[in-house]
Amino acid sequence: MKILLIKPPLNPNLLTVSLYEPLELEYLAASVKDSDVRILDMRIDRNLKRELINFKPDLVGITAYTCDYNTVVTILKQVRESDSTIKTVVGGSHATFSPDDFVLPYVDAVFIGYADSTFPQYVKAVDNPDRLKDIPNIGIIDKESVFFTKKVTSVPDLNSLPLPDRNLTRKYQKHYHDPLRNKIMLIMTSRGCPFRCNFCACWKLMDGKYTVREPESIIEELKSLPEETDIVYFSDDNTFNDIARMWRLSELIKKNNIRKRFQMYARADTIVSNRDLFEDMKAAGLQFISIGLESFRDEDLEYYNKRISVEINTQAIRILKELDIDIIALFIIRPDYTEENFNQ
């Protein structure tokens, strides 16, 4: 089967200063090795018509955040109009939380949650409607009606997943960069988060569960990344939640002489409680920490169910500065903020 996986164009109404590889599509491609798969990154190459004519896919899959919804719907419609025999499927955050939005006459299926196992099952059963109904966590669409299969919540074994197929995005790799224009590669080492911040969808994707890859598995992937990679971004929801794992990872990075700079995510309270770990990780290559400060007011942090305080945030900032680890601070803007709030 010929499968075309699409990363939609950037939303022109949003400002972004970085461009990351479509890791989610690279993982999906690796899960269907028996198929002929291509990835079209429309943030870089928008010639969908050429790809459809030259490749002639049997199935087209696309991922969508909410901000991409209108664009993705247009692309799915274009695919169906180009060839009515092409199967079209959609996944990602918006499909997971609002699957009914994709119950459209030019969509065949919607994937809910991570599709590591459900996508290859779908590919194998795509021509057998009865078998499709046995696949969990998908919506099977027939014109403007949908049949949702049973919901199954399971924790994936991240160590057993095939490595993402980066060969399919090699032609785009020179375009991927962080805000400082460093050449960047992504690596997934955990999924989910045990915390319950009410603005965040990450923990909901895993139904509140948290799972990790073993450090030895991470090291093998780090070794496989191109030498010219400047930064390795750990695209996790909460990289440092498992403290023992991170101690072991730091040890193995140094033991294997992996000389790369890393960007990771950590909570402020984790930093404050584990200064020595972050000092050790700095020696292993940790250069950037993304930290969800969220607000400058304790009342906001309580409202967000962040389970943290401005004082803890301040301590974490002080520690990172002392360790010479660059800070990527993340904030949530409440809809009711006034001009005075922004001035503060």
Kindly describe this structure.
By secondary structure, this protein is of the alpha/beta class. It folds into 2 domains: 2-148, 3-Layer(aba) Sandwich (Rossmann fold), CATH 3.40.50.280; 177-343, Aldolase class I (TIM Barrel, Alpha-Beta Barrel), CATH 3.20.20.70. The chain has 14 helices and 14 strands. The protein has a 7-stranded mixed β-sheet, sandwiched between helices. Strand 4 (87-91), helix 4 and strand 5 form a beta-alpha-beta unit. Helix 8 packs across helix 9 (243-255) and helix 9 (243-255) packs parallel to helix 11.
Distance, first to last CA: 57 Å
Strand neighbour order, sheet with most strands = 2-1-3-4-5-6-7
What is the CATH topology assignment of the largest domain?
TIM Barrel
Helix content class? 25-40%
Total domains, how many?
2
State which percent range the strand residues make up.
15-25%
In this structure, how is the largest beta sheet organized?
Answer: 7 strands, mixed
Number of helices: 14
CATH arch. level architecture of the largest domain:
Alpha-Beta Barrel
CATH class of the largest domain: Alpha Beta
**Radius of gyration from the alpha-carbon trace, in angstroms:** 21 Å
What general outline do the C-alpha atoms trace? Answer: globular
What are the segments in which pLDDT stays under 50 over at least 5 consecutive residues?
A: none
Number of strands: 14
Along the chain, the helix and strand elements come as EHEHEHEHEHHEEEEHEHEHEHHEHHEH
What structural class results from the helix and strand content?
alpha/beta
